[in-house]
Specification:
This protein is of the alpha/beta class. Helices cover about 45% and strands about 15% of the residues. Strand 11, helix 14 and strand 12 form a beta-alpha-beta unit. Helix 3 packs across helix 16, helix 8 crosses helix 9 and helix 9 runs antiparallel to helix 10. About 50% of the residues are buried.
């Protein structure tokens, strides 16, 4: 098949189909992973993605690649760099015009929420952002889905605790478990009834999986679609961002900053100086070709995240295990999406999820890194839009079946 052919069910989007291959399982126990779709790629990307899936990222290789990317990303922030910037002049903070509110989490931390779309829309789509970021990272998806679905959906965005405009969290409550509770609080406050699609990126994807494991009945009853973007079900400490966070020096600085923030100002600065460039450096598949507007936007988000927040989430990111969500999500229409150059939550982590969810849609975006929804916004928005479209169809079918059952009962 060539790149101009359409795959059935792809809604006109060019796709490249990969052959079947063993997953990332331990030697001697091969598991077949349903081949991912490759969106936006060229035919030569097939083998490159194939190699990525066959070769899991190790600690040394992950740190080396992340270090190289960090050094190479400096050029994207040089003053006056405007070459090849398709988003020059773009207002990346557009979500600020949406309806805003504050929701109190279970421990009292205020969570900043934004809503777009009619309050009586039949479907609600909830977006959960990642570590050191904010709800504004969904900028392009908000616009695309609003254009595509209009009054059919309402979109809910919120800043995770310690991020963006939300309140600071204690170290004790900086956990995936608490983030899952926060997601439940936001849903209960803004969309207490009706069908849902829930989409999470990075730590946000971990939050969605944690929510699914802790609220299985609600998920089975109300959630008709789940999007897991550039995330990991467990074992993040082995590679990517987890390898950096698990570094003894970084962990020691994090402990100092978290326990005594008033006394260890230098420790906080040192932690920020170490970890922030790594997060930024691992954000893009090809930093040198990234839009300067988007690059500076991501850099500003990371730089504005309080160092205590960065430190407080260390432990949960390196030790979390949300594999219990698999049993719930096997019954939910799910899309697993990742860039093949993601250095923070490497592609093999998405393969792990696809192994556990054999019926999920598995999408790889060639050349994209951790910030795939900002690097390739059209492709990612289209894929997530298809997830929402399928959820709307499923909701209508369920409504028709229930109406038919009621008619028969009377």
């Amino acid at each position: 098949m060539n790149e101009d052919e359409d795959v059935p069910g792809g809604r006109g989007r060019p796709r490249l189909r990969l052959p079947r291959r063993p997953g990332r399982s331990a030697a001697g126990t091969p598991i077949e992973v349903r081949p991912p779709d490759v969106v936006g790629g060229e035919p030569e990307d097939l083998e490159a993605v194939n190699d990525q899936i066959r070769t899991p990222g190790g600690l040394r290789a992950g740190l080396s690649a992340l270090g190289a990317a960090t050094l190479g990303s400096v050029v994207t922030l040089l003053p006056g760099r405007r070459a090849n910037d398709p988003w020059a002049g773009e207002d990346m903070w557009e979500l600020g015009v949406d309806r805003g509110s504050m929701v109190a989490a279970s421990d009292g931390v205020p969570l900043a929420v934004r809503e777009a779309g009619p309050t009586d829309a039949p479907m609600t789509v909830v977006f959960v952002h990642g570590y050191t970021l904010s709800m504004d990272t969904w900028h392009f998806q908000r616009r695309h889905l609003a254009d595509r679905f209009g009054s059919e959906i309402r979109m809910i965005f919120y800043d995770q605790r310690g991020h963006g405009l939300s309140g600071m969290s204690s170290r004790r409550n900086s956990t995936i478990d608490q983030l899952s509770r926060d997601l439940d609080t936001v849903i209960s406050a803004t969309a207490p009834a009706g069908p849902l699609v829930v989409i999470g990126h990075s730590m946000g994807g971990m939050t969605v999986m944690g929510y699914s494991a802790r609220h299985p009945e609600t998920v089975r009853e109300r959630v008709l679609g789940v999007g897991l973007v550039s995330t990991a079900m467990a074992e993040l400490s082995e590679a990517g961002l987890g390898a950096v966070l698990d570094n003894k020096t970084v962990a020691r600085l994090a402990g100092f900053a978290g326990r005594s923030p008033g006394m260890f100002t230098n420790g906080r600065r040192a932690l920020g100086a170490i970890i922030s460039p790594f997060i930024y450096g691992g954000s893009f598949g090809d930093p040198a070709s990234m839009s300067p507007t988007v690059a500076r936007f991501v850099d500003k988000l990371i730089a504005s995240t309080d160092v205590l927040t960065i430190a407080n989430f260390f432990e949960t990111l390196t030790q979390h295990d949300e594999s219990a969500a698999a049993a719930v999500l096997r019954d939910v229409r799910t899309t697993v999406l990742c860039g093949d150059r993601d250095l923070l939550t490497p592609l093999d982590r998405s393969v792990d999820i696809a192994e556990e969810l054999p019926d999920a849609e598995f999408v790889v975006v060639p050349g994209a890194g951790h910030m795939v929804m900002l690097e390739e916004p059209a492709h990612v928005s289209e894929v997530l839009g298809d997830l929402v479209a399928d959820a709307i169809i499923a909701f209508r079918d369920r409504d028709r079946r229930r109406a038919t059952d009621r008619d028969r009962a009377t």
